[in-house]
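Retro notes, item 3 of 5
We never archived the inputs for the FE2/S2 (inorganic) cluster complex last cycle. Fixing that now. Sequence and ligand:
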Amino acid sequence: MTKITYKNQKLSLKEDQTVLNALLEGGYSISHACEQGVCQSCILKASPSNDLPKTSQIGLKSTQQEQGYFLSCLCKPTTDLEITDAEDLGVKFQGEIISTLKLTPSVYALRLKIEGDFPYKAGQYINLIRPSDQTIRSYSLASIYDKNSYQQKYTEIELHIKAFPGGEMSSWLCSDIKAPTQITGPMGDCFYSSSFKGNDLLLLGWGTGLAPLYGILQEALSSGHKGNIHLYHWGNEPEDLYFQKEINIITDQNSHVFYKAGLQCENKIKNLKNLMFGDACALIQKEIPSLKDWKIFLCGSEAKVNKARRIFYLSGADLSDIYADAFFTWQIPESTPKEEKITG
Ligand code: FES
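Structure as it came back at the time:
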C-alpha cells in the first residue's frame, strides 16, 4: 500500500485515491477547488528523490516540475512520497474589494486593491480566497498592470464575475462591498506579448470570457500593437454581452480594431440592434478564411474553447499560436443553476 508522509504523519492511500483526497480524509485542511488539475490551488511539493506520476505535474512550469511541485488532486502515486506545503508558490496576498459595478443583471465588475506590488499580465488569472472558510475561486484579470502602483504600495485589479442564483462565492463577491479577501497568483499564459506586435490578433470569448480579452486588448493597444485586432464577444443571452459601449469607443479611436458581438441562437430574441446571430466560429471562418500567422485567444467554456481550437487549426492557425483560458463548471447543490468560473 502506498504511503505519504505529511507533517510527520504517515497516511496510507486507498487504491486509486489521490493525495488530496487522502489528506482531506486525514483531517488536513488543504486548499483545493476544481479537483480537475486546472486551478492549481492544491499544489504541494514532494521530496526531490520521490517518483511523481507525470500526470500530477501537467500544467506546471518545467522549473516547478523539476523542484517536485505537483497537483495533489491529480496525484495517485505508485511509490511512497514525502510531502510538504508549497509555501513559496502559495504566497497569499491580502486584498479588499473596493467597488462592485453591475454591468448587466447578472454580470459584475469588481475592483480589488491588493497590498504591495502584484505584477501581472492582463488575461492571466488569480485565485480568490474567502478568508472565513478558505473557499477558492479563480478569475481572469480584465485590467492591465499599473507599473506606478507599487509606489502607492498597492495594486488594483479588475475582475468580471457572473453571479448565479445559489452561487456561493459569486453571490458573496457581488454583494459584499469592502470585503477582505486573500489572493494567490497570477497564473496562466493566456496574455499578450510584445513579440506579437506585428501579428493579426483574433480574440474570441463567450460571456465573462470577455474579461481576459478586454485586458489583452488594452495591453496590446498600450504596447503599440501594429497588426489588426478582431474581437468577437458571444453569448447565449443578451445579458451575457456587456462592455459594448466601452469597446465601441476603442474601435472608434483605433482603426485597426474590429468588434462584433453576437448570440448563439436567434430564437426569442427580437429587436436587438448591432448583434449578430449564430455560431461564432462559423462566422469567423467566413470572415477570415485563413488564420495562418494569427495569434488567437479563446476564452469560454472548455467545450467551446476546444471546438474553436480545432476549427481555427483547420483554418491554418498553428496550435502554438492559440492561447486559451477555459471556464469550467462548479457543481453546486441540486435545484440551483451551476456556477462557472474562469481559469487559465
Ligand atoms: S484542486 Fe487541484 S488543480 Fe484545482
